[in-house]
Amino acid sequence: MRKVYIDYNATTLLRSEVKASIIEDLEIFGNASSMHASGRLAHTRVEQAREAVAGLIGAKNGKIIFTSGGSEANNTIFHTMRGLIECPALNKFSERNEFLTTAIEHPCVINSALNLKRSGFKVIILPVDEYGKLKMDELEKALGDKTLFVSVMAANNEIGTVQDIKKITALVKNAGAFMHIDAVQAVGKIPLNADELGVDYLTVSAHKIYGPKGVGALYVKKGSPLLPLVHGGHQEDGLRAGTYNNLGILGFGKAAELSAAEIEKYGKEMAILRDKLRRGLLEKIPNIKINGHPTDVLPNTLNVSFPGAEGEAILLSMDMQGIEASTGSACASGNLEPSHVLMAVGAGPEFAHGSIRFSLGWGITESDIDYIIEVLPPVITRLRAMSTI
Q1: Tens digit of each residue's pLDDT (9 = 90 or more) over 248-264
Q2: Got the DSSP string for 51-106?
Q3: How far apart are CA 382 and CA 340, in angstroms?
């Protein structure tokens, strides 16, 4: 049976070049913290990977801290902000006890924020417009001398909407607060320069850019505070303990190197294929809705609502014909609640429950797009005929 994987926002395949690099690096077994020759070799390769990740996100004015992934990196930032308020030695932060984020963040950010709220901190969840853009007037209204920290994702994982990070950061810094962007879905898909944006923190994950799972990174601007979430040894300048994940980090470095070199080509090719898919579905299937911003959107992401058909039924029907897509965030799979992202943009339960996210990546061809456009219309027709909605 033909297989079309079009769920690259959930995870990407391991690039052949990355796989070859990891296989080669299997021989580099030394602990990167050891002082002997094997350890020094491992340490050198880890630092080369660090430079590659820094190069991908334009990070010269800060440091790259390796983590186990985007979720750990994001949690580290929330842990740091909480620590700044609670530490008696840091009196200058005690009056700034408000946290701001948006209604469409990744679950690891939303749940970290809610955890702070349960602990008595003030957390403001900012609304977005119908396209998923942060409402700037609401941000300006919420910012004040009590604001410590603002966390906004650079691009949404479900609908692909890209935020105006530079404008947001300028407002946040003008209010004297720290700025964090979850750039896990944006890095490698659109150009991002941490130094030019002026953010304090930026999160990235290897498995979203054709690298291995279980490794990510946190950019920390020079002068911005960071408190370790994982305590132990001296690794990462004492900011993240634990034996270095040599293979993961080296694979991450190779993936970052490739992404930096190909980002322009990636953007053009993915946008062409995505637009072809959008046109085909709009022409072949009546009464559907494209979710997300029409222009400020990731080049590889297309979120479509099919009212009158359940998303899970659509997904399973496509899967039976070899098409692997998603109903939303992979971190929310198994949850019967409608997508919090689509609810936040005002899609409504029927549209939210009947949505499918197509996320493209290297390996998707025009023939694959044609196959989806051929297979999906009769699936929707059949499911709508069976629906009780």
Answers
A1: 999 999 999 999 999 99
A2: HHHHHHTT--SEEEEEESSHHHHHHHHHHHHHHHHH-TT-GGGTT--EEEEETT--
A3: 27
Cβ–Cβ under 8 Å, residues 218 and 201: yes
**Tokens encoding 334:** 């198994």
Contact 172, 144 (CB under 8 A): no
Q: Report residue 198 as tokens.
A: 């002026």
Kindly state the helix (H) or strand (E) to which residue 147 belongs, with its residue range: strand 147-153
* H or E segment and range at residue 144: none
Q: Residue 209 has which token pair?
A: 């850019």
Give the number of other CB atoms < 10 A from CB of residue 129: 15
Strands 122-126 and 98-102: parallel
Is the dihedral angle over the CA atoms 318, 184, 215, 108 positive or is it negative? negative
pLDDT digits (tens, 9 = 90+) for 110-149: 999 999 998 888 999 999 999 999 999 999 999 999 999 9
* Contact between residue 289 and residue 305 where contact means Cβ atoms under 8 Å apart: yes
pTM reported for the whole predicted model: 0.94
User: Are 181 and 218 spatial neighbours (Cβ–Cβ below 8 Å)?
Assistant: no
* Single-letter amino acid, residue 234: H
Q: Helix axis angle, 16-25 relative to 246-284, nearest 10°?
A: 170
Nearest to 306 by CA among 195, 385, 222, 189: 385
The answer to whether residues 259 and 56 touch, using CB atoms and an 8 Å cutoff, is yes
Number of neighbours of residue 44 by Cβ within 10 angstroms: 12
Buried b (16+ CB within 10 A) or exposed e, 336-365: eebbbbbbbbebeebbbbbbbbbbbbbebe
Q: CB of 220 within 8 A of CB of 24?
A: no
Q: CB-based contacts of 118: which residues, under 8 Å, 6+ apart?
A: none
Instruction: Name the average pLDDT for the chain.
Output: 94
Residues classed as catalytic: 331
C-alpha to C-alpha distance for 7 and 359, rounded to whole angstroms: 5
- The β-bridge relationship of strands 178-182 and 289-291 is unpaired
Beta carbons within 10 angstroms of residue 261's beta carbon: 12
